[in-house]
Amino acid sequence: HLPVTLTHRVATWATKLASYLNPYLEITVSEYGGERFRRSELFLAAEAYLSDACGRRARRLRADLVKDSKNLQVSVDDNDEVTDVFDGVTVWWYAVKRVARSNVISLYPGEDERRFYRLVFHARHRDLVVGSYLPHVLEEGRAVTVRNRQRRLFTNNPSTSWNSYRGGKSVWSHVHLEHPATFDTLAMDPADKEDIVDDLEAFRDAKDYYAKVGKAWKRGYLLFGPPGTGKSTMIAAMANFLDYDVYDLELTAVKNNTELRKLFIETTGKSIIVIEDIDCSVDLTGKRKDKAEKKKKSNDDDDSPSESSKDESTKVTLSGLLNFIDGLWSACGGERIIVFTTNHKDKLDPALIRRGRMDKHIEMSYCRFEAFKVLASNYLGVSDHELFGDIRRLLDEVDMSPADVAENLMPMSKKKKKRDTHACLAALVEALKKAKQDATAAKALADAKAKEEAAEAREKEANKGQAQDQGKEDKTSSSSTEEKMTATKGGDK
Ligand SMILES: Nc1ncnc2c1ncn2[C@@H]1O[C@H](COP(=O)(O)OP(=O)(O)OP(=O)(O)O)[C@@H](O)[C@H]1O
């Protein structure tokens, strides 16, 4: 029966009086803060921090599976309270859940049930809590999240029906990355491998260095080599080593440069952005040439300029890709590695792979003995064998990819029912011998063809020479006949 204005006034006075008497302050950390679709980073960090630092003090806990679905993360359950001590100051965290009334239809995540943490502390510690404690919670919470998180493999390919992020709003979709490759299992020259690992480590720890020299914190790797030499395996090993997510960018599914930029902006830090087979993805190599040709053509054919600009806006161009790698946008976020793979390095535009864009060029080559030893150890668990001598000699002479070598070492193939090391290695020796024979035969064939072509060319050249000589002769003889005739005519006169 009270007027509304009076009710409000009474409520305000009551709060004021309570705050005057109650020396404790409260900070609320909501699950969905400013953004409707994204859970607040501070909330996630607080959740992780509380599970790690104060979980033991809570009485009601909630357990979730994280990382490979093997580890358990135990966090404070809704409506429970935990105490934390920071710099001698005690603070209290309350995990609160509010469920919306049943007649409210929720449109957004977090609308039907609101979860938040309430942090309570004495007013005299306000500066300490806001200035030091909350940043500490954020930092520690982030570290726990990184430790616990499951690596993800993202794709921009719209044909997949993978986990689309919150109602298809994101341009990326993802699955958990569970590739077992590591640098220990990667077959390549040990010195090269060590060099790459050192480089990755230096990159990961170089945040301050990049800031000091004024460069965006990112690094480009170009992996090139024949098929089956381990380029994709290397990317998985990198991701496992650095604990980064992988964004596998399917360039053919990107409509234009604007979409490419959008994709880039939506990638997060601590990630590897991969464009596989860059030479096949989009015709970037001849772009400049194309442009020059187009220009020439448009001059010749009087082509309208609007048509060519329309063409540019519906395609990913070389300049769009260069911008993607080192334009202004590429600096957002930091801690990103960009990897291009190709089977034909020579087909790529030099601008795309110059140092600074692709900082490190790594050649993945055919399997030599050192790489083979890694495969033998991985697949058969042996580091030495009587057939190693033969294999070393053959691998020096024959180009076989690690994928083919590995295939011969698979002990569980149909032919070799049981794990017989000798039989596997003998099969590899046979395969190498056959590959050598094939290569010799192919070389002989190519030589014979080249010889044949050379002979044909010589013959053509000779025929041409003969024809020219004949022509000259004919000319000389006809001119001398003409001369004779003129002379006769003169005589007659
Ligand atoms: N260097 C390597 N070390 C260990 N395993 C390898 C290596 N190279 C190839 N393999 C094996 O061969 C398979 C194919 O290799 P991968 O896909 O990495 O080659 P790639 O160079 O990316 O080939 P492509 O150019 O055709 O994409 C892998 O599953 C892996 O088991």
Automatic annotation (TrEMBL):
Coiled coil: none annotated. Residues 289-312, 440-493 are annotated as: Disordered. Transmembrane segments: none annotated. It holds the Pfam family AAA. Residues 217-368 form the AAA+ ATPase domain. Belongs to the AAA ATPase family. BCS1 subfamily. This is AAA+ ATPase domain-containing protein.
